[in-house]
Write a structure and sequence with these properties.
Helix content is 31%, strand content 22%. It is of the alpha/beta class. The chain is globular. It starts with a strand and ends with a helix.
């Protein structure tokens, strides 16, 4: 049984995330963690934009917030977001990873350590390699890995980088990702 979903996206992923969140009814037993690359000076607007269409509660956490199932946690602009074994969120302003802060790799790696086989990791469209190593960690921990079909991705670099490192459990279009999540 799954306990968490970790989603990472960059260039070309915002519309995909909107579509997923507007279609997926959520699950009161699942925590969702979302890292999107965005401009570090843009501090407001993402939660509001996602919440307008979402059927799931979305919030940007504060450091040491207790994780509550049924909520989606969006990494704040210019902060790494990690999940800790005490089921809290840790925020960090440490150096960028793969030129990114927040880093998808760091989120995925921390989620893999905590949730292991109870985790679904999803990598979406993006213009760098962030998330590929983290998705490999999710796979090694026994979690389920989903990569957006590079043929559909607006920017193929992130999905292709992940495919270079792992044999994904699923390579899916946006509609197929929604169907997969809705069946949980």
């Amino acid at each position: 049984m799954y306990k968490a979903i970790a989603i990472g996206g960059s260039a070309g992923s915002f519309q995909v995330i909107l579509k997923i969140f507007s279609s997926f009814p959520g699950n009161k037993d699942l925590s969702i963690f979302l890292t999107m690359h965005r401009l570090k000076q843009v501090r407001k607007g993402f939660v509001e934009a996602l919440s307008l269409k979402s059927r799931i509660m979305i919030r940007e956490p504060d450091d040491k917030d207790k994780i509550t199932p049924g909520i989606t946690y969006l990494a704040p602009a210019n902060y790494h977001m990690l999940v800790s074994s005490d089921m809290t969120i840790s925020l960090s302003a440490e150096e960028p990873v793969n030129h990114s802060r927040p880093s998808i790799d760091l989120l995925f790696e921390s989620c893999a350590e905590v949730y292991k086989e109870a985790l679904i990791g999803i990598i979406l469209s993006g213009a760098n390699r962030d998330g590929a190593n983290g998705l490999r960690m999710i796979s090694r921990a026994g979690g389920t890995t989903i990569i957006q079909d590079p043929e559909e991705a607006q920017v193929r670099t992130m999905p292709e980088a992940a495919l270079d490192l792992i044999k994904a459990d699923h390579i899916l279009t946006t509609e197929q990702i929604i169907t997969f999540l809705t069946k949980l």
